[in-house]
Amino acid sequence: MLAFVHIKKTAGTTLTAILRRNFGTRHLDTRLHLYEDLFLADDLRRALKLYRRLDCIAGHHVRPFGDLHSLIPKIRYFTFVREPISRLVSDFQFKLSCLTRRGIQPRDTMELFHTWLKGQRNLQVRSLAGCEDSDEAIRTIRQQIGFVGQAERFDDSLVMWRRWTQNADLDLRYRSLNKSSSSQAKNKYFLREQMDSSEQLRKIVQEANLEDLKLYRWVRDELFPRQIEEYGEQILATETDELRRANQELHAWRADSVAGRIFRNLLYRPLKPLLGVGRTRAA
């Protein structure tokens, strides 16, 4: 079983759409109430009462430090990372846009940011290791995660990821999802402008991402180049160009399978409380 550790704002929404479209009713989105919750073996066991032929799970709640391996010993984790400061800016931009859509205008946007930042420290490392320790996150990748992509090199990552899945029939074509609207771009520029004009703010943001920066640099400078070398640099370049041409020629693209969407929205979501998915946290 494939298990996508979806870290917020690392191109995961687009990748999840690729998973949905390829796997259909054999793909499960593991949505729970709180971001900090883990999707555990008991949750998966209950979900399998509906998803009898499950090949892939994905979500913010899928973490390698959980206990899913106790139910699926050969579970295959993968994830994508992103340059931490850009990821954080994008995440706060998304926070502001959600408030705007709900008709909420913060009295003091910077006060909101500092409050929000307390829960965002080293988010990528915490998503992989369960703590703010980049060394532990790197150990987790080495021991449990079979593939790590880079959001900045999404097409290259997709091509290498497909070989890693051992499923050559996967359709990698996509349309980027969850991209910034014009209002979101203004929010993005707001935080960037604040950081450009305040050395103190830059230091605060940098300090909140120190472990994420260590992890990201290790992936960018050591792990990702090694994955490219193992794949074959020239082969990767050729196949990435083929994917980009296919995307340019893509006119109609469905970000989901019809059967998967019906199954997820009309069966799994309504029945999830009855199945007890997430019950472990409520107990």
- Rg value: 19 Å
Top CATH class: Alpha Beta
Termini Cα gap: 28 Å
Question: How many structural domains in the coordinates?
Answer: 1
List the strand order in the largest sheet.
2-3-1-4-5
Looking at the overall shape, the CATH architecture is 3-Layer(aba) Sandwich
Along the chain, the helix and strand elements come as EHEHEEHHHHEHHHHHHH
Number of helices: 13
* Largest β-sheet summary: 5 strands, parallel
Mean pLDDT equals 91
Morphology call: globular
Chain oligomer state: single chain
Content-based structural category:
alpha/beta
The residue ranges in which pLDDT falls below 50 over 5 or more consecutive positions are none
CATH topology heading: Rossmann fold
Classify the beta-strand content into a percent band. 5-15%
Query: What helical percentage do the residues reach?
Result: 55-70%
Task: Describe the fold and architecture.
With 283 residues, this protein is an alpha/beta fold. It has helices spanning 12-23, 41-47, 84-101, 109-117, 123-129, 134-144, 154-165, 182-197, 199-208, 210-231, 233-248, 258-275, 279-282, and strands at residues 2-5, 27-29, 56-59, 76-81, 145-150. Helix 6 runs parallel beside helix 10 (210-231) and helix 7 crosses helix 11. The chain is globular and about 50 Å long. The two termini are 28 Å apart.
